[in-house]
Recover the amino acids of this structure.
């Protein structure tokens, strides 16, 4: 009897254990199913919320792009029109639009630009999600939307040549795009070429005319694809770094160009506070230059009558302090910090050449707008300069640091900007880093003539040569050039000996050429570079910075119609 009772007890315990295990497994499975369902509902809410917000933004865009941009409407009519459009959109449930323009500029009532935060609340408790997007309404030109670009209404212009293996994190536009796995360089022996991987592109590629794909190892395999065939799978992933092919298309969106001459004259007039604007049909002629010089002289002589002491007047801090504002001279001027730091907190007009030289660890700070009806040369010798405000240069622009010994000292000259520069002549930048005065600021350079940027971090080595998991993460390397560069002409940049890491964008209306290799390189290894470049960091990277549309909102050129630029969504 005892044995039978013991057996029964064992059976009962075993059955109970299995029942508990079964119930536990069922509970876990049910809980997992419920969590999956909740997670699924969350994802559905996010997806559907984004769809609704995108639909509302599309409705907003349809209505605002046709608003006429009349200066006389800025005082009242323009804002009232926008308010009425937004009021109609409030009929959509859980939609809200907040005007946050004041967070970026205190000149809102003088600008057509508006920055909004659009949001929708979607779902039911406990899975309610708020989806937000920053929406920028701006008349700024379209080139600011791209990391790299070369585009023109003329079919003979707008060629983007990507030679070698740069990283491009952002959208690209070109009339004609030419990609090849070979970088060009210039050394003491003259021009040369070296094999490389292909370009890494993380963004949409908008090709208006055709795309040429070239393999240096098989020249006969060059592929020429016209825009009417795009998008197409004929473009092989093998023509891109690590076979990561971007989306390539031929967009029908209308590109808003910069009218450089009109923009330049408008900005020059504004900086000189000219009521009767300078009108000339050909800004490049000697007659035009004389006309501008004479007009500037007449308009500014009464402000600060200059006393011509010598051919080039040297301004130090004491002279600046004792000169009434605005500072106006009708002969060449030099600002030099040899005797001590210089802070220029007054507007300045130089009807001649201006040279600014920072040396002996005495920094120079330019805090107000600057007009130079001649050449502007900025030189640094291991001493920083920072420039704020709008700068207009009717001659050539030259920004130069002193040359460091390769392999011994890294590039240590830095010029910081919160500025837009309009240069009517050529622009030349060498041996210097370009940074923003703060994290959100940068340089925007508009050049009418050719743009040259050279000898940046020349022959510097990477701290860690191997790529990070995110190949566009170069945060532990040299500081990026925080700038947008635009030229009406051509630009050629060499990321072979130099090291370019640009946070902003590059655009050349006629032709833009970039060259890049991967990995460390020395003077003696240009011809025979690192045998294996795959997996090595690039020496030329451009990461698009969309914040330029809000950080330089009051200084950018104005087009003849509005555009709607939408940031990525945030969810909380």
């Amino acid at each position: 009897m005892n044995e039978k009772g013991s057996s029964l007890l064992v059976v009962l315990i075993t059955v109970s254990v299995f029942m508990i295990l079964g119930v536990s497994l069922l509970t876990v499975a049910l809980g997992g199913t419920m969590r999956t369902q909740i997670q699924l509902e969350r994802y559905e809410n996010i997806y559907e919320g984004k769809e609704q917000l995108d639909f509302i933004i599309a409705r907003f865009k349809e209505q605002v792009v046709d608003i006429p941009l009349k200066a006389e409407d800025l005082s009242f009519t323009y804002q009232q029109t926008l308010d009425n459009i937004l009021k109609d959109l409030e009929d959509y449930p859980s939609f809200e639009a907040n005007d946050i323009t004041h967070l970026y500029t205190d000149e809102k009532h003088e600008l057509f630009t508006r920055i909004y935060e659009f949001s929708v609340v979607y779902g039911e408790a406990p899975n309610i999600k708020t989806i937000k997007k920053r929406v920028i309404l701006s008349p700024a030109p379209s080139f600011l939307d791209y990391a790299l670009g070369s585009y023109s209404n003329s079919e003979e212009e707008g060629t983007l040549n990507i030679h070698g293996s740069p990283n491009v994190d952002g959208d690209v536009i070109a009339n004609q795009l030419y990609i090849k796995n070979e970088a060009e360089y210039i050394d003491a022996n003259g021009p040369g070429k070296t094999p490389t991987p292909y370009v890494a592109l993380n963004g949409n590629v908008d090709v208006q005319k055709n795309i040429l794909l070239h393999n240096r190892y098989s020249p006969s395999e060059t592929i020429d694809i016209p825009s009417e065939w795009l998008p197409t799978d004929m473009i092989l992933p093998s023509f891109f770094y690590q076979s990561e092919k971007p989306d390539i298309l031929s967009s029908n969106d209308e590109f808003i160009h910069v009218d450089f001459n009109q923009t330049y004259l408008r900005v020059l007039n504004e900086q000189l506070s000219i009521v009767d604007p300078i009108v000339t049909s050909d800004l490049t002629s000697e007659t035009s230059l004389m006309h501008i010089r004479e007009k500037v002289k007449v308009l500014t002589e009464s402000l600060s009558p200059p006393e011509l002491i010598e051919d080039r007047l040297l301004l130090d801090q004491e002279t600046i302090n004792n000169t009434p504002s605005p500072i106006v001279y009708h002969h060449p001027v030099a600002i030099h910090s040899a005797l001590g730091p210089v802070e220029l907190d007054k507007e300045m007009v130089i009807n001649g050449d201006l040279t600014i030289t920072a040396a002996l660890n005495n920094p120079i700070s330019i805090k107000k707008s600057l007009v130079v009806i001649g050449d502007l040369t900025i030189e640094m010798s291991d001493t920083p300069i920072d420039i704020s405000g709008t700068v207009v240069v009717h001659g050539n622009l030259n920004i130069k640091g002193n040359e460091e010994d390769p392999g011994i000292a890294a590039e240590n000259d830095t010029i910081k900007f919160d500025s837009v520069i309009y240069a009517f002549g050529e622009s030349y930048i060498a041996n210097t880093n370009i940074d923003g005065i703060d994290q959100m600021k940068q340089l925007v350079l508009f050049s009418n003539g050719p743009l040259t940027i050279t000898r940046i971090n020349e022959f510097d080595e990477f701290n860690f040569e191997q790529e990070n998991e995110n190949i566009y993460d170069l945060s532990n390397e040299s500081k990026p050039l925080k700038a947008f560069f635009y030229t009406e002409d051509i630009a050629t940049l060499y990321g072979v000996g130099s090291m370019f890491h640009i946070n902003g964008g590059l655009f050349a209306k006629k032709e833009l050429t970039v060259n890049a290799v991967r990995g460390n390189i020395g003077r003696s290894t240009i011809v025979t570079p690192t045998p294996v470049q795959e997996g090595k960091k690039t020496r030329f990277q451009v990461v698009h910075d969309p914040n330029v549309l809000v950080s330089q909102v009051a200084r950018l050129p104005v087009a003849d119609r509005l555009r709607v630029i939408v940031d990525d969504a945030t969810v909380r």
